[in-house]
Amino acid sequence: MIFTSNPPLSLYVHLPWCERKCPYCDFNSHQSSRFDEAAYIRVLIEDLQQDLPLIWGRQISSIFIGGGTPSLFSGEAIQQLLSDLRALLNFNSGIEITMEANPGSADESRFRAYRAAGINRLSIGIQSFNDHSLQQLGRIHNGRKALSAFTAARQAGFDNINIDLMYALPGQTLQQAQADLQQAIVLEPEHISLYQLSIEPNTLFHRQTPQDLPNDDLSFDMQQQNQALLQQAGFQQYEISAYARAGFHSRHNVNYWKFGDYLGIGAGAHGKITLPAEGRVIRQTRQRHPDVYQQKQGSARISETRELHEQDLAFEFMLNALRLIDGFDKSLFSERCGLPFQILDKPLQSALKLGLINETISHLKPTTLGLQFHNDLQALFLDIETNDQHRIEPKIDF
Predict the structure, then answer these.
(1) Which has the least CB within 10 A, 28, 331, 354, 378?
(2) Can you give the CATH number for the domain in which 320 is found?
């Protein structure tokens, strides 16, 4: 594998605690009302320090603080975290710093403290404005609190806010899904992330699946309705679940989808780093449980380090890049994977014959049909013929 340059570099910071574990959530979150935030931040910085030799001289273009519920942390704790990060890392002058927040765990004073600390993009996990739906989803807030949290964020000075919203919820009608989205649009956020509820393994919903989930036809009608409403309201869909006003695409997530690099620190965090001089790309995974993560020392906090081989790189690139509505330049594949584009020929021809991809001399993009059958499109690239015989099954967990 031959790399001519480093990809853009981001940082993901995982804060793993929640007041309550939602029944649909498969993220690495742990219910707790008591934790030592100062001690955890010290461990985060120690964790970062051991990875610094991997990224000497490189700029950080974005930071995402996710969870869990990061807004359980105080403004002072976030101030300390970002201060320590600035001392260790080379921040890009226009760096995007996003923090997730739960409407049930933050108010205007806390939002102001986050803004003063340097957070410049807020992602509020509203999910629904309907009290019944929120109750079924196990959320700790109601519709009124969702509205007040958004208003508080605006009053605290945030001018770049994402709203997370879900549809195809238990018992949800087409009209209720429309009302949820219309309420979000009325608030005039810069970005809306709109997800269909999916039943994931290792969740309460997987063990006790709600009986009144919308069927596939109704879920598709909701999706079509949502896309039309957002387009009418001036939001551009740039990824399967992401809609933004002009100039407000999530730079951090775009870096994921374009197969950029990222450090991951915190319990259960993942990272991907390109080492051009060695012709290698590595993935790291941290210890999942926060107690174990904090008790370990040095490299013992890393539960797994593995090298991505040719087939892994090619598949994982396509897994991410095919989520982008406008697709990608073919040159990006070689740039990020260090491989010739021609190794994609066989699955690409299958995708073209099925009408799932459009191709020009220099560009690929999924068709409307390809976006509708996105999982099928991705699956075509599972078996890519390379000269590398050391296949390891890819593991993606953002």
Answers:
(1) 331
(2) 1.10.10.920
Q: With contact defined as beta carbons under 8 Å apart, do 68 and 15 qualify?
A: yes
3-state secondary structure of 135: helix
Q: Is the pLDDT of residue 233 over 60?
A: yes
Using alpha carbons, list the distances in angstroms from residue 138 to 24, 173, 239, 262, 383: 8, 19, 27, 31, 39
Task: Give the end of a domain, one of 233, 255, 277.
Answer: 255
What is the H or E stretch that residue 228 is in?
Answer: helix 216-232
On whether the CB atoms of residues 369 and 355 are closer than 8 A, the answer is yes
Name 1's Cβ contacts closer than 8 Å, sequence gap at least 6. Answer: 279, 280, 281, 310, 313, 337, 338, 339
Residue 15 within any structural domain of the chain: yes
Q: Which domain holds residue 82?
A: 9-255
| CB 184, CB 163: distance < 8 Å | yes
User: Do 250 and 346 fall into the same domain?
Assistant: no
User: What b/e readout covers 159-168, taking b as 16+ CB neighbours within 10 angstroms?
Assistant: ebbbbbbbbb
Q: What are residue 12's phi and psi, to 5 degrees?
A: -110, 130
Question: pLDDT (tens digit, 9 = 90+) per residue, 201-222?
Answer: 988 898 999 989 999 999 999 9
Per-residue pLDDT band for 3 (boundaries 50, 70, 90) equals confident
> CB of 146 within 8 A of CB of 100?
no
Tell whether 245 and 346 lie within a shared domain: no
Q: Which residues contact 42 (CB under 8 A, 6 or more apart)?
A: none
In a domain, 217, yes or no: yes
User: By the 8 A CB rule, do 140 and 102 touch?
Assistant: yes
How far apart (Å, rounded) are the C-alpha atoms in residues 376 and 314? 16
What's the pTM?
Answer: 0.94
Degrees, nearest 5: CA angle 242-245-249: 50
Same-domain pairing of 92 and 158: yes
